Amino acid sequence: MRYRKIIKALSLLLFFLFPVNFYLIFQVAPTERIMGDVQRIFYLHLSLAISAYIGFGVLFVASILFLIKKNILYDVLASSAGEVGLIFSTLVLITGSFWARPVWNVWWTWDPRLVTVLILWFIYLGYFLLRKSLPERMKKARYSAIVGILGFLDVPVVRLATKWWRSIHPRLSKEGGGLDPLMVKVLLFSLFTFVVFTIALIYFRFRVALVEERITSILNRMEES
Amino acid sequence: MIRLIDINKTYSLRPVLKDINLDLGVGEIFVLFGHNGAGKTTLLKIVSGIMSPTRGRVEGLEKEPICNRIFYLGHNNGLYSELTVLENVRFFQRLFSGGNGDNTIIKKNLSEFGLWQRRNDRVRSLSQGMKRRLALMKTLICDSGFIVLDEPFTGLDLRWKDTIVEKILSLRQRGTTVLITTHLVEEGLRLADRVGFLEEGKLTLIRKRTEIDELQIREMLKGEVCS
Amino acid sequence: MRFAANIFLVVKKDLLLELRGKEALSIMIFLSLLLLVVFNLAVDINRDNVSELVSGILWVIFAFSGILGMGKTSLSERDDDAYLNVVFSSVSMESFFFAKVLSNLLFLMIMELFTIVFFVVLFDYERLFSALPGLSIPLLLGSFGFSVVGTLFSFLSTGSRFGEIILPLLFLPLVVPVLIGGVSSTDIILNGSAGDTPGKWLKILLVFDMLYLSISLILFRYLVEE
């Protein structure tokens, strides 16, 4: 079984990556002068954001492929990646909130980047609600692929709009200036860890979803005959 | 001629149609029988181009958007229920032929389908049978070279079934190819030049009308339900 | 012009449907009026704050009333699979979609005019009337964006089980750029903040419209064909 090996390799890799990543974040990375230790959440926050975008990006590409090839595997991949993206974007919003509270003294800030993630979060929540409301399998795949494509294309436009919109309102300026080179290295390692983690999660979820798909199709066939 | 070549359709992971090969001659009426869920509707949708096959292709339909190269009538009638009968007919006439409909022809057609009296009523207020008749009229009056009908007789009473059978038979002179599914054996056999039997996604039988009788079809429809 | 004739045919049919059914437009206008009343009860709009609140209130109403109405207009196509006829006609799926976008745009603009009149009457804010020529551009661009996304999504959601609830949930997050662009440009036109022109906001609206029109024209086919 080829995919067993892939799962094993990915799990093993993550088994080493994660402890190292946390060691780097909490022990090696220098403490930020103004924000203090809280700033360390930034390594996770940014990594989670990138991971969420990877999830939604895979969903986008898989959705296009589904509409072209009409192969249900692409839909299974799209929804698996979407689930991972949704979980990571939820975590982005939560970690962002944890970070904002001690630093800016607010739970939420209407920063363009955060707003973009929040809007995306709503779009993909709608994506899964739509999936739930469509019982017919192929219709579910087609319709949600359309939403997946339109939703992802919204990212740059929302980003631009919120950025300009912010500029006419008072802005919370971010303190600190440039990043320390050591911080950059830790950040890059954290990003790498999370990219591997995301790919692994999407892959695992995809395998499980595929089995679910087979079971449903077998059950349907049994019911019919 | 319309050729179905190796049509396969898989719904999610479940095969619905398996290697369907069929040639339909010009002016031929082909009647497809089969149990519920055998894949009849799926096959008709693929032939009419509103569903793409997983594998295989349909040949012989002109690619350029010539008016009415094909017409498909499914389980739903495809009418605007808030518009009147006449408004529906006028809209479809323009949609399908581009030009303005001739009033005398519209009147003649509506009368033949027993709808002239109700021409100013909203489609919503018509009975099931009337709606079906209007939908069939919409389908049969346009100069389509290939007509696909999914259970055309649903909701029609005996008298109208006969009329519709006559109407479909008269399409032959126009050289229109017709593909029909129905579970009404008698009407189906009156129409058919050839008969097909679809079973679990496979075309298990194709016979000329003269080579098969009503009893055989009835037997097939009755039996093998649990296979 | 075959294309124009086809579009006119479908739009004319939609107007006739609306004339007969009186569903979409009347619901939209009624909801707009109701929302204005509710807004006033919630935030107490008066002479001092009206110019600050007007653009936000108007666009929120446009979005909500609009999506409700567009859900209704798609229902008449989906109910009995009437849209399928287009597949077998000489009218292309693309021109059919474009025609639906135009009919919805027309309904939206009518609803918006009514809302503006209601607003002026209820809150004695005549500035809206005098600024109407300038406002017509963001209104047109914003409504077009609403219409493109709304037409596609309402077609999509009417095919699902609880479409009417799903529709605004899908629609509102996606049109956030239109809302921001519409509110900001309307605000600048009405209150004329120093050195700020509505230009860049109109540009965002235009970009959104073009992007989503082109993508929707491609994707609509996949919505119809199984």
SSE map:
The complex is a heterotrimer of chains A (225), B (227) and C (226).
Chain A: H1 2-28, H2 41-69, H3 72-104, H4 112-133, H5 137-167, H6 181-224
Chain B: E1 2-11, E2 14-24, E3 29-34, H1 40-47, E4 55-59, E5 71-73, H2 85-97, H3 103-112, H4 128-141, E6 146-150, H5 158-174, E7 177-181, H6 185-191, E8 194-199, E9 202-208, H7 214-222
Parallel strand pairs in B: 3-7, 3-8, 5-6, 6-7
Antiparallel strand pairs in B: 1-2, 1-4, 8-9
Chain C: H1 2-21, H2 24-43, H3 50-78, H4 84-87, H5 93-123, H6 127-130, H7 132-157, H8 163-174, H9 176-191, H10 199-224
Describe this structure in words.
The complex is a heterotrimer of chains A (225), B (227) and C (226). With 225 residues, chain A is mostly helical. Chain A is built from six helices and no strands. Chain A has helices at 2-28, 41-69, 72-104, 112-133, 137-167, 181-224. The longest helix of chain A is centred in the C-terminal third of the chain and has 44 residues, at 181-224. Chain A starts with a helix and ends with a helix. In chain A, 38% of the residues are buried. The radius of gyration of chain B is 18 Å and the shape is globular. Chain B has seven helices and nine strands, in the order βββαββαααβαβαββα. In chain B, strand 8 and strand 9 form a beta hairpin. Chain B is an alpha/beta fold and 227 residues long. In chain B, the strands form two sheets. Chain B has a six-stranded mixed sheet, sandwiched between helices. Chain C has one domain. In chain C, 83% of the residues lie in helices and 0% in strands. In chain C, helix 3 crosses helix 8 and helix 5 (93-123) crosses helix 10. Chain C is globular. The model of chain C has no long low-confidence stretch (mean pLDDT 90). The interface between B and C is medium-sized, with 33 and 25 residues.
In short:
Chain A has 225 residues and is mostly helical. Chain A has helices at residues 2-28, 41-69, 72-104, 112-133, 137-167, 181-224. Mean pLDDT of chain A is 86; it is low at 168-176.
Label this structure with key terms.
heterotrimer; A: 225 residues; mainly alpha; 6 helices; 83% helix; B: 227 residues; alpha/beta; Rossmann fold; 6-stranded mixed sheet; 3-stranded antiparallel sheet; 7 helices
